[in-house]
Amino acid sequence: MSEKTMLTSRLYGIRDLRVERAPVPTPGPGEVLLKIASVGTCGSDVHYYLEGGIGDAIVKEPITMGHEFSAWIAGFGPGAEGEHGLQLGQLVAVEPAIACGVCEFCQHGHPNICPNVRFCGTPPIDGVFAEYAVMPAENCFALPEGFSADDGALLEPLGIAIHTVDLAHLKVGQTIAILGAGPVGLMTAAVAKAAGAGAIYVTEPLAHRRQFALDYAADAAFDPNAEDVVAAIMRATDGRGVDVAFEAAGAHETPDQAARVACPGGKVVVVGIPSDDTMTMNASTVRRKGLTIKLVRRMKHTYPRAIRMVSKGLVDIAPLATHHFPLERIVEAFELVAGYKDGVLRAMIEVNQ
């Protein structure tokens, strides 16, 4: 009997992304076979595509990227059938991080910083820009009726936004700034609004993203190419600054801007990934204000909350899926996202549609 094959995409090097055939994987004990539905092109995927790595995570051998995804249950490995209420044909959202569960950090409830984590699409672990994949059954979350494949995939960046706001310990009525209105920045604004933020100020150089932010969650949006955004936020807050500044751009200047717009005793939460793997803040600004600085490492325990937030209408994630491509046209999707073209927010790869 001939081996079953599937379409997959493999990144061989910078801007060298190829669609080819590979064997359909077989689920092992406790795993499920997933028929991939929708996958988002995340900013971290774009870093790999444009730069060949993120920090010390370097693409040394061909790899399948992709980690924001939904899928249908297509089969069960030994011991997985019936686990977690999963059924054949069910649409699920999938947590892309496989933590070890036994290290000190997992045991303390922090699987997102597990040093032994296996994360989809992070070298050398293959991701899900492919027709099929296998994952542990416990990483799969059944989606309620009415959820689309895109909704399921977008729960991953929504989970990051929830974790980002969690780190801020945001209180009702507090003011925030979000530097960078990409999908995670926009979702952070939406989660913060749902959590009771008193005012939301956004900075973003792209006009279509500023307008989206205003329509979506922000009270004001400022263009760093046209004005001093720090001065603009300080004016908007009568010179006080904001309680929490979220850095979501990964640009060279935005961490320091976040520190400058935070009020004395405020917080800075960094979620953006800088392309040069460095981050700079003025030491005297941070010290004299007594700022608390936190950095986001993916997310933890967020999928059930993310599903409830979408189900209850507390956040609307569907509008962020602005473009759709079949797997065969994945290079077009990456070039679109890398070039910030055509008003793109999140380009979705429709794998088995």
Describe the protein.
- The protein has ten helices and 19 strands.
- The protein is of the alpha/beta class and 353 residues long.
- The chain is globular.
- The model has no long low-confidence stretch (mean pLDDT 96).
Count of strand segments? 19
Give the terminus-to-terminus CA distance: 27 Å
**Helical/strand content category:** alpha/beta
* H-E order: EEEHEEEEEHEEEHEHEHEHEHEHEHEHE
Roughly what fraction of the amino acids lie in strands?
Answer: 25-35%
Which residue ranges are poorly predicted, with pLDDT under 50 across at least 5 consecutive positions? none
Question: Could you tell me the mean pLDDT?
Answer: 96
- Rough outline: globular
Integer-rounded radius of gyration: 20 Å
Helix content: 25-40%
Q: Quick one: biggest sheet?
A: 7 strands, mixed
Number of helices: 10
Tags for this entry?
alpha/beta, 7-stranded mixed beta sheet, 19 strands, 27% helix, globular
Map the helices and strands.
Layout: E1 5-13, E2 16-23, E3 31-40, H1 43-51, E4 53-54, E5 57-58, E6 68-76, E7 91-94, E8 97-98, H2 104-107, E9 118-119, E10 132-136, E11 140-142, H3 149-168, E12 175-179, H4 183-194, E13 199-203, H5 207-216, E14 220-222, H6 229-236, E15 242-247, H7 254-261, E16 262-270, H8 283-289, E17 292-295, H9 303-311, E18 321-326, H10 330-338, E19 346-350
Parallel strand pairs: 12-13, 12-15, 13-14, 15-16, 16-17, 18-19
Antiparallel strand pairs: 1-2, 3-6, 3-10, 3-19, 4-5, 6-7, 7-11, 8-9
Helix pairs in contact: 3-4, 3-9, 6-7
